[in-house]
Design a protein that fits this description.
Layout: E1 3-11, E2 14-19, E3 23-28, E4 42-48, E5 51-57, H1 58-61, E6 74-80, E7 83-89, E8 91-99, E9 103-104, E10 117-123, E11 126-131, H2 133-136
Parallel strand pairs: 5-7
Antiparallel strand pairs: 1-2, 1-8, 3-6, 4-5, 6-7, 9-10, 10-11
Length: 148
């Protein structure tokens, strides 16, 4: 039996799970510097201890209403392919252990399938979509720094 730990996040009226091993930190909302001609889901960038961190709006990506960021919103800093990115969410609620056998993966062409989720986990009585972090930004990650 395989288990993984996941961070439960709130996006609009929905709870989602993110793989805990990909989470670097959770921080409060910080205004970002907007970028010209950026993808609509990219709010901008911020300085994270000397590094430029792109921040994406999870509400926009997941098709939820997108109000202006609020002080109570949270930026979840995740690492994908060695590159950090921020994901603006409405909040975080818990860390849970998810057993592999409680995850249902969609079959090809299944009505509830989505390219943004890897499956649906049953946690207690709740069904929680498992976000596919590698597909959330649509391949719009920042470039890796050039080797010195």
């Amino acid at each position: 039996m395989s288990r993984c730990d996941a961070l439960l996040i709130q996006v609009g009226d929905q709870t989602y799970a993110m793989p805990l091993l990909q989470i670097q930190e959770i921080r409060g909302w910080t205004p970002v510097t907007g970028l010209p001609d950026a993808d609509a889901s990219c709010l901008g960038v911020l300085n994270l201890r000397g590094h430029v961190l792109p921040v994406f709006d999870a509400r926009r990506i997941l098709g939820k209403p997108t109000p202006e960021p609020r002080p109570q919103d949270v930026i979840v800093v995740a690492v994908m392919e060695g590159r950090p990115l921020g994901l603006l969410v409405d909040g975080v609620s818990d860390i849970v252990a998810i057993d592999e056998e409680t995850v249902t993966e969609p079959s090809e062409g299944e009505m509830w399938s989505s390219r943004l989720i890897d499956g649906i986990a049953t946690v207690g009585e709740q069904l929680i979509p498992l976000l596919a972090l590698d597909r959330l930004t649509g391949g719009k990650l920042p470039a890796l720094p050039a080797a010195a």
